[in-house]
Specification:
Blueprint lengths: L13 H30 L7 H33 L2 H8 L6 H12 L7 H10 L4 H13 L2 H11 L1 H24 L27 H36 L2 H8 L6 H9 L6 H13 L4 H13 L2 H7 L5 H25 L1
């Protein structure tokens, strides 16, 4: 019988393979601007000053750039997420009082970016652990609002200052909204069956993995998440490219600039019913800002799209009554609007 040979690359130490992959990632990322310009203006022969040339150049540069950023951050967050299982997160928050609990929950929400499908079992586990309702909401708000993909993309596109502002204000909204919900004493608006569920029925299990298993887990996350959202990336960048190349600067500056008092409010009202992930909305944000839209208005639009999605509301309806969902969505929306106006006043 013939024995299957072990692939050659597996004989290389894991640390060496990871270092080589990181170096290759950096080299490819640095080569993207020149490669996009070469394809757009040399191979395709487009005029850099034309609308079409500007739009195509934007598209050909941003698609690989965003996909590279997305791949890198999903891998790193996959490693991090392997250390923070839902069960461990629940234990960390257990027994924490309001105030300190809101702060810790919001920070954990950033470090453990669970998807909407995890909302119900996480919520059940938190409630059964005796975690205050407001602390639970601080976690549920910060987890989608301070999105790890959005954070790294903002860092790569606009610099650390904008990324830090996004993270800081998102955490403040999550902490404040959770604290207010806790102060309102809205436990009566949980569905009756929630308190009848035992902790063991939530499906939350602790995992103990080797580092190789954590790397494999992160690679699986890259395949799953990038495979699921790459089309959103392409569509979002296509929209951004069209805005970048064809929409007059004065038009967007007038509707989304600082001069109109209603701009942030309208941006949030438009963003709430939309459903997109951070990978799809960031390219649109970039194009809007390049055309003169105000930072606060654009960030408010982005945060409303990412933080208050219709699918998450429908999933949470299984454990929350309509009144509590309305308060939850309303508090987050008001917080985002305030953040948008503050940014427009300060920056």
């Amino acid at each position: 019988m013939e024995t299957s040979k072990r692939p050659f690359y597996l004989s290389i130490p894991l640390s060496v393979r990871l270092a080589a992959a990181a170096i290759a990632w950096i080299l490819v990322y640095q080569a993207l601007p020149a490669a996009a310009d070469y394809v757009t203006y040399q191979l395709l022969g487009l005029d850099p000053a034309s609308h079409l040339g500007s739009a195509v150049g934007f598209f050909l540069y941003d698609v690989p750039k965003i996909l590279l950023l997305l791949t890198g951050i999903v891998f790193l967050v996959g490693i991090l997420r392997s250390y923070f299982s839902p069960e461990r997160t629940r234990k960390l928050l257990g027994g924490k009082r309001e105030g300190v609990g809101n702060v810790l929950a919001a920070l954990l929400g950033v470090a453990t970016p669970f998807c909407s499908c995890s909302a119900v079992p996480l919520f059940l586990g938190f409630v059964e652990s005796g975690i205050p309702l407001g602390v639970t909401f601080s976690f549920l708000i910060s987890s989608p609002m301070v999105n790890e993909v959005a954070l790294v993309m903002l860092l790569g596109l606009f610099g650390w200052q904008i990324a830090a502002l996004y993270m800081g204000t998102g955490l403040i909204v999550a902490m404040t909204a959770g604290w207010v919900i806790g102060r309102l004493g809205m436990d009566r608006y949980l569905e009756d069956w929630v308190y009848q569920v035992r902790v063991g029925e939530t499906g939350l299990e602790e995992q103990r993995l080797t580092f190789q298993e954590r790397v494999d887990y992160a690679l699986d996350a890259v395949k799953e998440i990038v495979g699921r959202v790459w089309m959103y990336v392409v569509v979002g960048i296509a929209i951004g490219a069209a805005i970048h190349g064809y929409v007059p600067e004065n038009l967007l500056a007038g509707y989304m600039g600082k001069d109109s008092w209603w701009n942030v409010l309208v941006a949030v009202l438009i963003g709430i019913p939309l459903y997109s992930n951070a990978a799809g909305i960031i390219p649109v944000v970039q194009a809007l800002m390049e055309k003169g839209a105000a930072l606060g208005t654009v960030l408010a639009f982005m945060m409303s799209v990412v933080a208050i999605s219709l699918p998450e509301m429908l999933i949470l309806r299984r454990v929350l009554k309509v009144q509590l969902i309305a308060v939850f969505a309303g508090m987050v929306a008001v917080g985002i609007i305030i953040v948008g106006y503050i940014f427009n006043l300060v920056i």
